Amino acid sequence: MIKLIEIREVSRVSENLSFSCSEEIANYCMRKPLELQTLASEHCYCFCLDIKNKVKTIELISKGSLTCSLVHPREVLKKAILSNSASIVLVHNHPSGDSEVSSDDLAITQRIVKACEVFGINFLDHIIIGKDNYYSFKQKGIM
Predict the structure, then answer these.
(1) Is residue 74 situated within a structural domain?
(2) Is residue 58 one of the residues assigned to a domain?
(3) What pLDDT digit, counting tens, does each position of 74-99 carry?
(4) At 15, is the secondary structure helix, strand, or coil?
(5) 2, burial (CB in 10 Å: exposed 0-12, middle 13-18, buried 19+)
(6) Residue 98 maps to which CATH number?
(7) What are the residues facing 128 on neighbouring strands?
């Protein structure tokens, strides 16, 4: 006997959030409720957006250690697909306070870009939050 289940893991955003640039998302991530620059371990979030870049959901993808966080494209895309999103922005923090991109950051970004292409989801940016600054792959021309 096959049991049918409804897959429902997506949380909704209660605020009416909309962003027009990476800087706005980074600033949001450095304020309450997220305050990513204050966290002692890496946290990775996926901002799932509709066609007009209004936030549908903000999903915690993973919590890591002081130096890394395991992020798999499957987990990122699962959230985007379940929320019926047109676009995503990935955001994570570096507890060291240094927002410069690492080789691991670059590698996972490239994997997620490829996965998003397959599913027709726009990957708008990957933002790294440091102590008082941020790094945007889009602004640096990497995406």
Answers:
(1) yes
(2) yes
(3) 999 999 999 999 999 999 999 999 99
(4) coil
(5) exposed
(6) 3.40.140.10
(7) 92, 135
Which of 79, 71, 85 has its CA nearest to residue 121? 85
Q: CA 60, CA 48: separation in Å to the nearest integer?
A: 11
Count of domains forming the chain? 1
Two tokens at 46? 């996926």
Per the listing, tokens 């440091």 go with 130
> Does some domain include residue 114?
yes
CA–CA separation, 142 and 123 (whole Å) = 12
Q: Determine how β-strand 122-129 pairs with β-strand 87-93.
A: parallel
The predicted structure's pLDDT at residue 8: 47
Q: Which of 24, 25, 29 is nearest to 43 (CA)?
A: 29
- Could you list the residue range(s) of the whole structural domain that residue 127 is in? 41-136
Has residue 119 been placed in a domain?
A: yes
pTM to 2 decimal places: 0.88
In the DSSP assignment, the letter for residue 100 is: P
Q: Write the pLDDT tens digit of every residue in 25-74.
A: 999 999 998 999 999 999 999 999 999 999 999 999 999 876 667 789 99
